[in-house]
Fold these 3 entries.
Entry 1:
Amino acid sequence: MSDKYDVIVIGAGPAGYVAAIRAAQLGMRVGCIDRWLDDQGDPSLGGTCLNAGCIPSKALLESSELYHRAHHDFADHGLDIKDVTMDIGRMQKRREKIVSQLTGGIAGLFKANGVEWLQGSGSVADAGKVAFEPVGKNARKKTLEADNIIIASGSEPVALDIAPFDDERILDSRGALTLPDVPKRLGIIGAGYIGVELGSVWSRLGAETVILEAQESFMPIADTQIAREALRQFGKQGMDIRLGARVVSAKAKTGKSGNVTVRYSVDGDENEEVFDRLIVAVGRRPCTDGLLGGDAQVELDDKGFVSVDEEFRTSLPGVYAVGDVIGGPMLAHKGMEEGSAVAEILAGQKPHVNYETVPCVVYTSPEIAWVGKTEAQAKSEGIDYRVGAIPFAANGRAKALGQEIGQVKLIADAKTDRILGAHMIGPYVSELIQEIVVAMEFQASSEDIARIIHGHPTLSENVHEAALAVDGRPIHFAPKKRK
């Protein structure tokens, strides 16, 4: 088969595999290079998201939440279950099965759409040329040609010199998902969404969990009111989140009885903690190591991200980039939209990615979700706005579920009533936020949401009530007057 393609995609994570499939749907000959190996050392599509991120973490979050609810909530439903235990091995096998099904599904989609899966490593050698090194002992490097190249190499966990990964005691997020047992004491550096999700998994299963966060505020990217409630709930669940805690060093002792000694400072006072395992979850960095050959003049910004224009073009003609490697929110769905958009651009179409309506979700319990501006952002931008907020304690479906914690908060422009943002904490808000994403995409007002009939009893009624509350007329809740 010819080594000449219309498009070569480097990376088969969400941005890459979507770009490859969409380009193939549009009639292009597509090769997609990926070097990911699963836990058994076999090539696997889907990148971090499917193999060691979004999907496996949600599998473990679901298993651990059921275990936690069996111990703490089921009795309220009349379910008298005694001696509930967790088989970690079976839980991990379930995770592996889900991952295998979904990564195998991507392979099936490649086959159905005619995308060639090139198993190995790729780097941009020059405009229209990719150096490809296939997997396998006897495989030979070769140069592939393409009219266009799409870089979708993704991101990887940030490593700390003061806490180097050893894959036994000090772990990155991938290692944290494959633990064979529950640590007695678990330390986590970083209280972002990765840190609190991983903390939730192992805390629910019995680990004494301490999260050290260098920032003075918790989840500053989220709405302040929502973040404050989340911190309170996580504390009630047993997670010890220490803000303003700057880690100075982490030293691991290997072996069965090994541990990790972590030194950190708070307000200038030095402290020490000893953990069975330590997870470093301080963010992710773009994967660009080995990505660019000597003649590939692709510009990177000061943080190492690939620089692109509004149509995802890099500084090298015919080379595009999408997903985590170009920065912005490191979210699979954001990368997917960019992957689809760049394929359509290559086909001469005019797609658009609206970065104002990218939803963010934290899959803890309660879940956290938001889209658009926070109240603080609206205030700092001098926007005259109104807020409608309704707690789930007033919602019949939430009461029936036994999950009454949290609220839905809607922010709208005071003059035009256009929805500026929504912020939620509570049951299944990962699903509820999508209604506001659609509404914002169509530039809807809070009155538009208020006039839409929502089924009863549903959690979505809280979205409806929040929209009514923007205008000061909620039906099922009497809010306190804002000062």
Entry 2:
Amino acid sequence: MKPQYGQASDETKRKLYSSILVVGGGLLFHGAQDFLQHRILNKMPPSFRRVVENVEVITRPKDMDPQLIPWKGGAVLACLDTTQEMWIHQHEWQRFGVRMLRERAAFVW
């Protein structure tokens, strides 16, 4: 029997393999969708191929030009209250430098 942490990790990996999203206009050439889907499935460990329900690559969303989606996402992100707390002002950068990135980043690195 696997340890408890391994099961949680496997569940997280399963969700991640089921939730890959590629945005932007870089995949607007013929065959890119099938190629990326094939590469994802081939790189996925065999044990996950059985439990991941669907790997879907969408290169052209219904309502918008794919080249504009990153810009729209960035515009929405910039309006969120939590994003306002992440801004680094010039005087902070001059005083603390790159250390401010660790302080304000939305993720641990």
Entry 3:
Amino acid sequence: MSQQFDVIVIGGGPGGYIAAIRAAQLGFKVACIDEWKNAKGGAALGGTCTNVGCIPSKALLQSSEHYEHAGKHFAEHGIEVKGLSLDVGQMLKRKDQVVEQNNKGIEFLFKKNKVAFFHGRGSFVKAVEGGYEIKAGEESLVGKQVIVATGSNARALPGAPFDEENILSNDGALRVGAVPKKLGLIGSGVIGLEMGSVWRRLGAEVTILEGLPTFLGAVDEQIAKEAKKAFDKQGLKIELGVKVGEVKSGKKGVSIAYANAKGEAQTLEVDKLIVSIGRVPNTIGLNAEGVGLQLDERGAIVVDGDCRTNLPGVWAVGDVVRGPMLAHKAEEEGVAVAERIAGQHGHVNFNTIPWVIYTSPEIAWVGETEQQLKARGAAYKAGTFPFMANGRARALGDTTGMVKFLADAATDEILGVHIVGPMASELISEAVVAMEFKASSEDIARICHAHPSLSEATKEAALAVDKRTLNF
């Protein structure tokens, strides 16, 4: 006899587990199915984000930043370090502990909210009276409503599949047991830059090959140029406009044949190669075709603006549908869908979803870029403020970058905020809140900010829109 549920969520990543918790809060009987396993074969809730994405990468970024500070920056503070050494094994152990803490945290939240958890692969069996039969590992469940949150997988380079030894996805990149002498990356997106930064700080010679002719094309051009300048100074070698050819993996490492921006044939020899050329929606084993669930040409589940699929009572959220592949976007969709099932008016504003790249300097933005405003012929005003003129940044010893405001020329409504510099990931939240409330740059300029704080750079950039900065 199948177990009956009001809502069944397939996938326990940020979109799935949050949807399950919110549905349970709203009074539904909820089940969540997830197949991630830890090293011991047990459940590892949290999906790609917790297990091989956002969380472990931030743990390694923090460790590598400490190492670089100890080796290069402590002396200027009067702190002398002798015999500095690196234990990569301990660094990875700490990363794994951070991941496990998050896994267990989600397990606790499921128990607290009375969400039934099933460890195994979730897949559709058939439509039944009053819902759908879902296979959960070896169990059979029936749900009135189903939320698919199966996430995404790393896109492999054609002809060079991941072996996670020499040719690495984000998964393998987080498990490298020793600092490679030479590290190659294909793709200068978020994953490429973050992983490149980790291993560069730890001593690897890092080369990034990017097919596009521009660096970080989705980022505001002025901000991207400032970031590129910082990365070049750090020693990250970034080649743009390349065309990757044959990739050979052997006992000595990996050989990448490519043509540079001038069309000249080049060869890059590295110990390890990280491929970060995007991700693809994960519908493997879902049996979408068995129930007629519609997929698009990319393999993503087709949904409307409210995350409804073509099947009644079936919803989909996160990386497996359209829109940015961001954990927080998945969470917002998960909450919205649970509330829609309850007859409420769940809402996700795609225009105020923040983006962050956790490099040093960090890069964060929300809203439109200057090039997007120009492309649509918008009349706008811009204001910038450099961290080199910010007292807290000077005290931190990190004055790289700036804050940039873009506002409507007529109404002064904030259209976009772009930051490259220290703690940009935290500073961007003020801009998100301001844009959600349709604030003007004048609103931010008139708000008192604590002194000394990095957030004063936000205020000053807002003042700069009206050409009246006080500290620059």
